[in-house]
Amino acid sequence: MQAASNNCSPLWRTLSAAAIVIAALISGPASGQAVGPSALEPATTGPGVTPKVEPREFAPGVETFIPVEINPEEATAVHDLVEIRAQRGLNWKPKLVPQSRTLYRQAEQVRFRRDVWNLDFGFKPLRMIFVDLPTRTGEMRRTLVWYLVYRVDNRSDALSPSEEQDGYFSVAPQPAQPRRFLPHFVLEGQDVDDAGNKLYRAYLDRVIPAAVEPIRRRELPGRRLLTSTQMAEQPIPVGSEDDEQTVWGVATWTDIDPEMDFFSVFVRGLTNAYRWRDPQGAYTAGDAPGTGRRFVRKTLQLNFWRPGDQFLEHESEVRYGVAPGKASLYGVKPGVAHKWVYR
Length: 343
What we know:
343 residues, seven-stranded antiparallel beta sheet, six-stranded antiparallel beta sheet, 15% helix, 29% strand
């Protein structure tokens, strides 16, 4: 009996392995499994131990790099000082000096200047992964996580304005300095209803610690991957082509509407450029300085579309760029995959 059992054991092991594979296919993706072709590392290390793996070299075209937009006009701005011009009794006509010397007139069209810096940004394709996450009741629920792995480099010179003797301003480059990147990622739907009204759906980047390690093993073996809070904790060091100081991060979202077909990811924090305006009548005498003032910050808009349906969400359906004939939904020209906007 023992000999017969040993003779049958190879066949038995083969059948057992096949049964395990079939059961896995029926049960669907497990926690930490990607929604698409699997690229996870084998579990060769214990919990909390970073595997000693050489950093992976990406194939050409895997990463998308966004060039820094250098705009000297962002270093200066012209505004009225509404806090002064709203005061009573200042708009008068002197007899011995020109009216342009009055405080009221000198508070008109004042030029402001500031240093402007930019960070270099690149990203991998937007993908999906299943992760077990705790619910409010303490139970674990298998959750679909959308994520965007990105890199930040600090290589670009800053712009610094200075006033010349003739009263004009010139802008000169200044060497890069360590800068903090305070990530702010918003995934926003661009779909419209039958009447042409935008269906407002926006999802703020959510820090999900349980998803970071599975994503890192899949996307960046041998490298460190930071959440948005970890990314903001320390400045991005200055790097160059010979001294790479790349910092990798990941933005994650959950509970995305599966019926959303057209969407954009807005990335804020890659530059300190901003604009502001004072709406007519927003400030009145006696208000606190800055009352009614509206700021908009320079933001990177990355456009995507997904020609799938709500029944089977799959990362292979997500495409970078604008859908054919749908550029107006994104507020861009046809073929524009990314755009710098103020919002």
